[in-house]
Amino acid sequence: MKAKGRTVGKLRKKWVHSMIYEQTGFKLTGNRLWLSKIGELRIELSRPVPGTIKQIVVKHTPAHKLFVAIISETPDTPEPTAGTRAVGIDLNLENFSTDTDGVVFPHPHNVRKAAKRLRRAQRKLSRAVDGSRNRRKQRVRVARIHEQVENRRNDFLHKWSRYYVDRYDYIALEHLNIKPMIESLDAKLRGRSKSILDAAWYKAREFIQYKAANAGTYVHLVDPAYTTQDCFLCGHREKKDLAQRTHSCPVCGYTVPRDLNAAQNILKRAAVGWGTPESTLVEIGTATPPSPAGQVPVNEARISRL
Q: For the segment 158-174, what is each residue's pLDDT rounded down to a tens digit?
């Protein structure tokens, strides 16, 4: 192209966001990691590496931090659980989740907590001159805020999923489709799109599924349609507004918090998938109003406050 007199572009050097070492090219000795073409690095291991190391992934974040992920192969395979402890979990926006035992996890609202600081940092970034050193430094500051929000979210979801995998043998969750909820023309849902994205329900489901697989626990996904509107005891369906937080059935008089009724319906539907006869479904969960729902605080000491 250039020999024929045509103008060609220049190669641009970009940051390498990740590097993967397959099988060879690495050696881990204590807290020292040797990588081919790079040399020896000092790393901080979060825990001892079990099994045989198969892959090393070096990741460079936008906040200019380096992380090493070590993938290893272990011969141990979890045995399926033999217990019968079952729980249904309703994911919602009033609280992050409510289960059939009446346990409530408050919504962490990570984005809302960081909004003011992030808004100021982005405004300062937009005023900086393109290509200047101050702009590069400010871009890293903005990236760090986003990274802190993500870290706080992941920390909460890991603790939430661990809570249920350690306590139950059967876990029932809604198979939520987030995209239609975000793109909904309903003004009430459209106004809550930021909270829906901040909740990261899809990631929560992934976290609880892979932990359950490692522990031999069963996770069942059910259709979320009408879980809020149907009465758990008699099955009567009545439409509810989002502001209506109490389920009060006009047919049988069953009265419980709205989210608790939804969690009981989720467990009821999952029980059919596990092979429970429909005649015994009413015995699953709590048939009478339980004691006041317990608020489960999530300790966030490991993540610095925004």
A: 999 999 999 999 999 99
Strand pairing report for 66-73 and 52-60: antiparallel
How far apart (Å, rounded) are the C-alpha atoms in residues 11 and 29? 38
Residue 94 CA to residue 99 CA, distance in Å, equals: 13
What pTM does this model have? 0.74
Q: Which of 90, 155, 198, 230 is catalytic?
A: 90
Domain boundaries, the chain: 18-73, 86-107+157-295
**In a 3-state reduction of DSSP, which class is residue 80?**
coil
Is residue 259 part of the annotated active site? The answer reads yes
Q: 61-120: per-residue pLDDT in tens?
A: 888 888 888 888 877 666 777 778 999 999 988 889 999 999 999 988 888 888 899 999
Beta bridge partners of 28: 33
Catalytic-role residue among 99, 174, 198, 230: 174
Q: CA-based angle 292:295:297, to the nearest 5?
A: 165
Q: Where are the alpha helices (DSSP H) in the chain?
A: 110-127, 133-167, 178-182, 187-190, 193-199, 201-215, 258-273
Contacts of 7 (CB under 8 A, 6+ apart): none
Residue 169 annotated to the active site = no
- For residue 263, which of 228, 226, 217, 219 has the smallest C-alpha distance? 228
pLDDT band at 306 (very low <50, low <70, confident <90, very high): very low
* HSE, side-chain direction, 13 A CA sphere, residue 290: 20
198 catalytically annotated: no
Question: Buried b vs exposed e over 229-247: b needs ≥16 C-beta within 10 Å?
Answer: bbbbbeeeeeeeeeeeeeb
Residues 6 or more apart from 28 whose CB is under 8 A from it? 34, 49, 53, 70
Q: Is the C-alpha dihedral spanning 224, 229, 232, 235 positive or negative?
A: negative
Whole-number Å distance between alpha carbons of 108 and 199: 8
Question: 215: number of CA atoms within 13 Å, CB side?
Answer: 21
